[in-house]
Amino acid sequence: MHFFKTEKKRFGTTETAARNNGDRIISKPSPITRRLTITALYLSVWTLLSGSVTSFTIREYTFNKKNYVSLYDIATKTGINQTFDVISQRGKLYHKHHSAVFQAGYAAYLIDGRVYLSDYPVIRKNGEIFIPSLFFREMCSAFFPEFEIRLANNHYSLKTKTITEDPVPFLTPDSPPKEKIAFIFIDPGHGGRDPGAIGGKIREKDLTLKLSRKIRDYLKKNLKGVQILMTRDKDHFIELGKRTEMANRKLKKGTNGLFVSVHVNASISSRSNGHETYYLSQNPTNEESRATASLENNVVVLESKKHKPYQDVEYVEALMLTTQIQKESALLADNIQGRMKKNLRETRSRGVKKADFFVLRGALMPAVLVEAGYITNSKERKLLTQKDFQDRVAKSVGDGVIDFIKEYNK
Q1: In the chain, what are the domains?
Q2: Pairwise CA distance, residues 108 & 130, whole Å
Q3: Ramachandran region of residue 196, left (φ > 0), alpha (ψ -120 to 50) or beta?
Q4: Of 31-40, 273-282, 324-333, 393-402, which gets the smallest average pLDDT?
Q5: What is the pLDDT of residue 294?
Q6: Is the predicted pLDDT of residue 400 greater than 90, yes or no?
Q7: What is the strand order of the sheet 98-103 is part of?
Q8: Contact between residue 266 and residue 199 where contact means Cβ atoms under 8 Å apart
Q9: Burial (CB count <10 Å: 0-12, 13-18, 19+), residue 120
Q10: Which helix H or strand E contains 114, and what residues bound it?
Q11: Out of 25-34, 90-99, 184-193, 265-274, which region has the weakest mean confidence (pLDDT)?
Q12: CA of 374: how far to CAs of 101, 199, 384, in Å?
């Protein structure tokens, strides 16, 4: 992780964090900064030793009619510990056994392993990080359940709950609202300088683009009121972490989405055959699942040497522990695989599986990876190039998505 101190006139330090071959450079703090840092450290140590917080007062800022709280204020006035990675723009807030994970530019965030959405994203302004007020309130409700968070005169305060007072009408992380599926991202695997698997003269990147276009068109025709998007609509290279990032940036309060990555499989054995659907897990279903993920993850050798979103260990672990996303992803995979089993009878259904696909890491919504068949199997390679089979793959994936949305909205 690469950490930085933010630029703020109010305490006189300048951010000069830079990355050079994995190194970081941080400016020498001023005497004022050192005194404030020591004060913040004493406060954090006192909080950890005492195990409780009695009260605090934090200002609410307004930018463009949107309300925020300063990350610096949270770190210095509440006793909540925080880290922030200047490269990935991701941060973590934690207190006792509670934690919250966020990213600048995202309106989605994780609190104790559950996904929440705000109306607007975390921002960076004048070198300082500001989180939406809703995020702050929900985090406080989870971190300090014995207290109430109140807002008066543009300042938040924490007060001990009393039985004579009415509870504050803020949502708590025990009952997050269910967001409407408003968009679907179809992700054609590979592309550009990454051909994917090759069978004969057929390249995976070409098949995935054709299949994805057909899935997009089928959903646009049969699923009204939902925006259908693609991570790429031509033959160009996109790094794995950028794909889910496109989808995550569409999230906001009241709006959820789906992410479907489309691939074809390959094996050193020409006998391997069948279609399957995956969702993300650190514990693969079997060795074949692990091998399939390794094959698809090999694209990282073609990516730049910069820090990758899927390499952020704390962030990935937080997502892996998000049972909400895993359950919904498993349900989406089950619906898609069920339709493929029904419609693609000339090929074998290999079932729903789980594995650690880098392209699915970081998705803050239900996300799956579809393997439509084996390009290294001569029979399936021929089928994968035929219009009728491609149309049935598209219909299967599309109907599976529609089935999921019906169940999700119940």
Answers
A1: 19-160 (3.30.457.10), 180-408 (3.40.630.40)
A2: 14
A3: left
A4: 31-40
A5: 57
A6: yes
A7: 81-85, 90-95, 98-103, 108-111, 114-117
A8: yes
A9: middle
A10: strand 114-117
A11: 25-34
A12: 38, 9, 9
- Give the mean pLDDT of 72-97: 88
pLDDT in tens, 130-141: 999 999 999 999
- What stretch of H or E contains 211? helix 204-222
Give the count of alpha carbons within 13 A of 271, CB side only. Answer: 0
Residues 197 and 265: beta-carbon distance below 8 Å: yes
Check residue 21 and give its pLDDT: 39
pTM of structure? 0.72
Retrieve residue 404's tokens: 């999921």
Cα–Cα distance measured from residue 326 to residue 357, given in angstroms and rounded to the nearest whole number = 13
Q: Tell me how far CA of residue 65 lies from CA of 60, 132, 349, 393, in angstroms.
A: 12, 12, 52, 46
**Which residues face 68 on adjacent strands?**
61, 132
58: left (phi over 0), alpha (psi -120 to 50) or beta: beta
E strands of 133-266, at which residues? Answer: 147-152, 155-160, 180-188, 198-199, 202-203, 227-230, 255-265
- The SS3 assignment for 150 reads strand
Task: State the DSSP string of 21-62.
Answer: TTEE--PPPPHHHHHHHHHHHHHHHHHHHH------EEEPEE
- Cα distances (Å, whole numbers) of residue 246 to 40, 100, 273: 36, 22, 32
pLDDT band at 11 (very low <50, low <70, confident <90, very high): very low
User: What length does the chain have?
Assistant: 410
Is 181 a residue whose pLDDT tops 90?
Answer: yes
User: Order of strands across the sheet with 180-188?
Assistant: 227-230, 180-188, 255-265, 367-374, 275-280, 349-355
pLDDT of residue 289: 63
| Beta-bridge partners for 124 | 129
Contact 103, 88 (CB under 8 A): yes
Which carries the bigger pLDDT value, residue 409 or residue 180? 180
